[in-house]
Amino acid sequence: MGIVEKWATNKTLLILCSVKTGTGYFVCNVYKQVAVRHKTDFMRQLKSFMTFLLLMCFSCKKDSTQNNLTGQWVWTIQYADNPAYNTTPQSTGIQEILSFNENGNYSLAQNGTIINVGTYKLSTVKNNAGQNVSGIQYTNARVTDSVAYYMLANNNDSLFFTYDLIGTAGSGSRHYGKQ
Q1: What is the spatial distance between Cα 101 and Cα 70, in angstroms, rounded to a whole number?
Q2: Residues 107 and 174 occupy one common structural domain
Q3: In 3-state terms, what secondary structure has residue 29?
Q4: Are 33 and 83 part of one and the same domain?
Q5: Cα separation of 150 and 135, whole Å?
Q6: What is the number of domains present in the chain?
């Protein structure tokens, strides 16, 4: 049904319609009378207030970044672009443990010796495809405000660091297992 014309009066709305059938148009003069209600100032204010509340509800976001990283993580493999260049603790002789504390501190130990300590903060960024990617902003004695992008898998027991998550191709990844 297509509306050809609208006619409005003070209290009613008159509509002239045309109906399309399977063989063509059947035109009729159908006038439908619809009551037009006048909004009161109270109704306008109520509508404005409800719209404001809805906008506030949808614009406020709960911080969904949970710290599932707290604890110790054991390095298992460094993936390269070519499987022939993958490295493991067995191939390098390096046992590495990455620890994240609830208070925002982290440490990195290799073969039982702490080689790096600093602070971290979790963040979320958008990748090249517009998807949310988890990141860790970290600071230590050597770097200030660096970011590592990560993904948790296998019920949060596998931690992968890779720049591939944000759209950088060919960077490989580093995997840690929860201890």
Answers
A1: 5
A2: yes
A3: strand
A4: no
A5: 6
A6: 2
Model confidence pLDDT, tens digit, residues 67-96: 789 999 999 999 987 788 899 999 999 999
30 Rama class: left (phi>0) / alpha (psi -120 to 50) / beta: beta
Tokens of 91: 């191939």
C-alpha–C-alpha distance, residues 16 and 8, integer Å: 11
Give Cα 49 to chain centroid, integer Å.
Answer: 29
Evaluate whether residue 102 is within a structural domain: yes
Domain region containing 154: 71-178
Q: Which two tokens stand for residue 153?
A: 């898998």
* Residue bearing tokens 């019920």: 155
pLDDT in tens, 46-59: 455 555 444 444 44
CATH number at residue 154: 2.40.128
Q: What are the residues whose beta carbons fall under 8 Å from the beta carbon of 44, sequence distance 6 or more? A: none
Cα 135 to chain centroid distance, Å, stands at 12
What is this structure's pTM?
Answer: 0.61
Same domain membership, residue 165 and residue 92: yes
Do 153 and 82 reside in the same domain of the chain?
yes
- Bridge partners of residue 69, in order along the sequence: none
